[in-house]
Structure formats: C-alpha cells, structure tokens
Amino acid sequence: MPHLDLPGTLGALRNSRYFDLLQPERTLKEELRTNLICKLNRGETLFPGIKGYDDTVIPQVVNAILSRHNFILLGLRGQAKTRLARMLTRLLDPYMPYLAGCEIRDHPLRPICKRCRDLVAEMGEDTPIAWLEPEERYIEKLATPDVTIADMIGDIDPIKAARTGADISSELTIHYGLLPRANRGLFVINELPDLAGKVQVGLFNIMQEGDVQIKGYPVRLPLDILLVFTANPEDYTARGKIITPLKDRIGSEIRTHYPITIDQGIEITKQEAWTRRRSPVAVEIPNFIHEIVEHIAFLAREDKRVDKRSGVSQRLPITVLENAVSNAERRALRTKESFAAPRVLDLYAALPSITGKLELEYEGELKGSDTIARELIRSAVGKVYNSYFDDANLRSVVQWFELGGTLRLDETMPSHEVVKQLSRIQDLLALTSRLGLSANDSDAMRASAGEFILEGLYAHKRISRNEELEFVASERFSSRSERTRDERDDLRRGFDPRRGNVGGGGRRNLN
User: Which of 94, 182, 220, 330 could bridge to 187 as Cys pair (CB 3.0-4.6 Å)?
Assistant: First the structure.
C-alpha cells in the first residue's frame, strides 16, 4: 500500500514534491527513459535474474526504451520473454498519482475521460487522489483467437446506462477494455500472432496517433502507454499472422535466444529449479549431473528429429533436475537414508519431464518420444564423460566386465550397498577423484559418481547395459577370442580383475 503521507487531494498534490513529476512533457515513455538513465549512471543491474542476455538482448531493450519505442520480443518458448517484460516495472516511479475511482487511471492535471473532467470541474482542489505502485501499472493479456475488440478497446454498456440513467450515446456508458485500463502503464500482449486480424487493426490508432475509438463513438482517448509484444518468430515470419501495418508501427524488434553456453544454461537451471526444499533428506547435486541435464537440452535443440520451429524450452532442464532430485529423495526416504544425491538412473526416471516438451518431426514420431529421450540422456552422459575421462585409462574397469563380471544397480538399493557393489570393480571408485570426490564424501555422492562412470562407458559402447540397469561386457568384446594378449596373460598368471589375485601370480598394473 502507498505511504500514508502521500497527498490525498489535488490541492495537496499541487503543493507537494510530487508535483514536478506531473509535468505535461513527462509521459510514461519519458518516465521509463529517465529512470533507466539513472540506473545506468549508477551501474545497477537492470534485470536481475535474467541470465545470458547481458551482451545480446538487454542492450537492445535498453536502446528501445531510450528511443521511446513500443517493441516486440521474438523468441521460441522458454526464452524468458514474459519475465523480461514483467521486469520493466523496475523502471517505473515508486508511486503514481491518479484521480481516485477512475477506470483508466486519469492524470490529475490532464483528465481525458468525461467522468474525471466533470469531477475536477465540480470538486476542484478537493478532488480525491489515489496512488498506484509499479506492479499495479502492469497489464498483461495472452492473445487468443477469441479476444474481441470489446475486450481490448471497449464497448457500450447498456446496463451501466440503465443504472446511471445516462443516454445510451453518452460517453459515460462506455465499458473500457484492457487497453484504456492500462493507461499510464505497461500493456503486454503475449503471443501476438494469435490475435485476430481485426483486433490487430484496432491497435493502429493507439500506436501511431495515441488514441482509440470505441464502437464508432467520436470519442478520443489519448492514452499514455507503452506496448510490448511477444511472439514466436516462426509465427511472425513464416505464417505471417501479424498484419503488415501493425509490424510497421512496432518500433523495435528484439530477438531472444536460448543459453549460448552450457555454463549459462546451468546457471539458469540452478536459479530456477526447485531443489532447495524442506525435507528430512539432505540432497546434494553433483556437478556432473548439472552438466548432463543441461546437455540434454542442448542436444535436443540440435537433434534433427526434434522440431526446430517449436524449440526446446529452458523449462526442460529445470523440470528434469527437479524430477531427478525428487527421485533421489524418494529413494532415500524408502531406504531410511538422511542424505541423497541424484544419479544417472534418476535422469531416466525423469523421462516424463522430457517427453512432453519435445515436438518431434516425422522421423522422431516413428521412433517415439521415450526412445528419443533415452538416446538424448545417453548422448549427454557420453559428452560429459568425455570432459572428465577423455584421457583416462579405464581398461581395468572394462576388463572386469569382459572377464564375466556383471553388476546390477537396483533403483531401491541403499547408497552404501551401491558403493559396496561398485568397490568390486577394480579401480572404479579411485577414478571418482577426477570428479572431485574423495573417500570422505558421502556414500550417496560416491554411488552417483561410480554409476556415472559406468554409464559413460555404456554411452561409448565399451560395456553394455539392459533396461534392468544390469551392466555387462559389450558384445563387441564379450567373446574369449577377442581378449587382448595382456588379458590372456593375466588369466594365465592367475589374476582375475573381478576378484583380484586368485592365483599365485602377482597383480599386473593394468594402467
């Protein structure tokens, strides 16, 4: 609520320090421009929480505001277009006075509706004044085909005429639409191409001449407003649903984009994902899990089987991470553990948060969204595995499987039992040091790291795995005839990588 010391009447407003903010030349766009210049001079962060746009989108938004332009944000789904538009309220004054009770928030010194003109003429300096905060000066409308001119601009209201006794041709019988009600504020129309053509025509006057006409009335409402639109570029350019005269009246066209780098994506996902939650289980997310989750989205955007025109929303990695954490949390609750860490198997459990966000091309439809999602996870694991183990020698781990070793990691298996099973594989847990882990880390983290290494080997087809999460030797290396000479020597010397030294010979250094 506004402070109690704000002027409550027109006369008090004239004698207050706020009067200078009501000069005729200080329109809404000038207000935004002035406040933006002040923030730039102070070096403030203009749009906190908006990641990856500092050198691309935000400078263009700043230029549009400095130019006093209406503008459109073009981008695929999940590119923070609406969030960016809503944060424009940060550039508004802390409080704005208007004539109390006015539907279109009339300027105290320049009322434009008949009701307010009559009120000021009657009450003079005692005319009551009310105040708006920045959030109240923001109106947003999702464009849908059923939106009408009456919704956007206004219409005659016979009920109002009957109640007030006014003539049906009187300006007082008008029911104002969203656009006039956004007067002296920000009006955002999301998904502009979905707005019917005749409604888009209704926006012409307000954008160019600064007024609207309602139901053929010769009434002029010179609204003070900033129009911001959002749209998918496919709708904008290919289908051509934004009519040409309207496009011509939009001052700036600003294109948004998905995160350019994996690090930017991870930063956004960490900020947006609900992972810090109240729970009896403490959850820690390994860095490699963050990287895998983000690579899933990046790979999906590059996959030819995924519709590029639809895009892959940044909501995908956010929901995948949330689902993976929830699966790890559920496992810890069932096994009575107080600590959990998401594992690769938890990413497979998060398939429902992937499949619904992929619009597939014909080839992808033939394979099915589940299959595509599983392949994306496997490819993402492979890429992240390479970044940690590209130069590592994992021959001893592969040999353990080639010599008949099998390992099944049940989803409900407690972390300490997983670590116990992984410790059977020669050198596997020692390799987790490349992931920044040590023997002092929790069993949950070590289990996650060990399983990630095995999944990386599986992704590169050095070992195999079935749907029951049982790891075995890859078919390419499973026959005894394909064993290397060193492996055959190991067996003759009595050393079995699955069990250690079982004969009289000494252990070979397999690295």
Answer: 182
